[in-house]
Amino acid sequence: MSRLLHVSSGPYAPPEPVRVLTATSADGATLHVEVHGPEDAPAVVLAHGWTCSTAFWAAQIRDLAADHRVIAYDQRGHGRSPASPACTVDGLADDLEAVLKATLAPGEKAVIAGHSMGGMTVMASATRPAFREHAAAVLLCSTGSSRLVAESTVVPLRPGRLRTWLTRNILGARAPLGPVTPVARRILKYATMGPGSAPHMVEACARIVHACPRKVRHTWSNVLDLLDLDHGVRELKVPTVVVVGTADRLTPPVHARALVAALPNCVGSTELPGLGHMTPVEAPDLVTGRIRDLVTTYATIKEGA
Question: Quick one: CA dihedral 240, 278, 17, 216, positive or negative?
Fold first, then answer.
């Protein structure tokens, strides 16, 4: 299956970058990085979630690139970034640091937006020198810091050992997802999106998720199962906004509320009625608007500018 399976037209078709580069992480892993928009514009960095790719941010890139320098990268093993035997939370932080160092000038600030595993990447990076140097503000979309499997409501049972066991085995399944069929779209919509999600949104997400190699999907599911970044939340001291859908089954609103309570500098939170886990796709204008607001309020092109 193509690693680049995605829609080819419309708002969710990935736009062509102004330039493409490769960032090298601390362990030698290479990362596909795209830069969109004017080089002298305020910077925005986008970190996608589990089983996704830069294509997930197509709507945000298309809008923001008119007057922002938008930097998007594929997490290791996703999209155009090669798979790596080292899949760890520290690796996620290493990778974000590598991208920041490769794309931003010394002292240059950026708004960093992370969705799902991308948000966890941000939390894991909170104490890293490059993050502290470059992060002006953060947007956390549909994410959590711990107890991801135990709190998931993908399996419609009461909380407890059985639900946790079933959820772990469903999300961590080794089986290939196969082609994007009507049944596959219904399954993906149930698990990851709100009931009112438009067909073109479901199609875009299905094509992105189904393009993720099954080994990569399985390996990262094990990392997320054991995730505990509660300490990272407490260290995330830049202004931070939290967004979640009320129908999110993968990272339900209980996670967002815990983040809001624990963040040292939470400057806003939004719960979107009826929306699921894929908030940048399901509510593209709202997510883009939150990023724009953070840039306007907190980001400068160079420190002291």
Answer: positive
Q: Which amino acid is located at 89 in the chain?
A: V
- According to the model, what pLDDT value does residue 199 have? 95
What are the tokens at 206? 């299905």
Distance (Å, rounded) from C-alpha 128 to C-alpha 115?
19
- Tell me the two tokens of residue 79: 């999209």
User: Which residue in 16, 54, 49, 15 sits closest to 33, CA to CA?
Assistant: 54
Q: What is the mean pLDDT of residues 31-48?
A: 97
Which of these, 93, 102, 27, lies nearest to 72 by C-alpha position? 102
Average pLDDT over residues 244-272: 98
Tally of CA atoms within 13 A in the half-sphere of 63 that contains its CB: 16
Mean pLDDT (whole number) for 192-209: 95
The pLDDT of residue 85:
85
Cα 55 from Cα 7, distance rounded (Å): 9
Find how far residue 143's CA is from the centre of its chain: 8
Beta partners for residue 266, in sequence order: 240
Supply φ then ψ for residue 268, to 5 degrees.
170, 150
CA 238 from chain centre, in angstroms, equals 18
Q: Phi and psi dihedrals of 21, rounded to 5?
A: -140, 170
